[in-house]
Predict the 3D structure of the following.
Amino acid sequence: MVRHSLLQIPSLIFWFGSTAQVIAVTAIAGSLSYVANASGWPLQDHTLLLMDRAIGLDPQLIAAFVNDHSWLVPYLNYGYGLIKWPLLGIPIVLAMELRLIRLQQFVLALNIALAVTIVISTFVPAVGTYYGLNLSPAERFPLLDSTNYAAQLRDIMALRNGSLRHLELFKLAGIVSFPSFHAASAVLYGWALWPVRGFRWATIGISTWIVTATPVIGAHYIIDVVGGVAVAGGSVFLAGCLLQMLASKNTSDLADSLRVGTVLRYETSQ
C-alpha cells in the first residue's frame, strides 16, 4: 500500500522519469559522438583557430597563462569535471520544489542540445586547440592536465584511420569540440535552477566554473564555447515552444491525471 501511494506522487514520478531519461540520453549521445566523427568530414581545427584569433582570443596565450599560474590548474580540473553532478541533482531539486514543468523543459532542452551538438559536430569535426596549434601540450605546457585532449586525439584519429572498430560504452567520454557541450550544459544548469532562490547563485557559480575550465582542460576553442551557449539558448526556447504546444492541447487532461493543478508552474518568464 505504501509503495502504491508513493508511485502516485507526481514529484517522485517526474524525478525518477527525468533521471532515467538523462542517464539514457547522455549514454547514447556518447556513442553517437563517435559515429559522428567516423563520418569522415574534414577536420575544421584550422578554421576554428582562425575564428578565435579573429576575435582576439588566442588559445595558446590562454593555455600559457594558466600554465604560468599553476595554482589555477587543480581548480580548473575540478571545474571541468563538475558537468556530471548537476545532471543528477537538478531533477531532485526541481521535483522537490514541485517545478515539474520546469523539469520537463530542462530534460527536453538537454535532449535537443545533445542532438543538435551531435549533428553539428558531424559536419564541423575538430580535435582541439593543441591540434590546431600543432603542438604537444605535455611538452609546451607541462603543468596543464591534457588527459582529456589526449584521449580525444587518440580516439578521433583511430576512428578516422579505421583502427577503432569496437566501442566500450563505459569508456566513452564524448569526442565533440564544436559546439562545446560543456558550455551548453553549464547554461542549461543555470537556467534550470534560476527560479529556485536557494540554489540560484550557487548554480550560476558552478556553471561559470565549468565554462571557465572548458577552453583549457577540455582544449576547446573559444568559438566552441560561444557555439555551446547558442545551442543551449536555442534548445531552451524550442523546448518551451514544444511544451506550450502540448499544454495548449492537453492542459485539462494533464491536470486531472497528475492532480497537481496550479502546482505545475511554467516559469519561462522568470
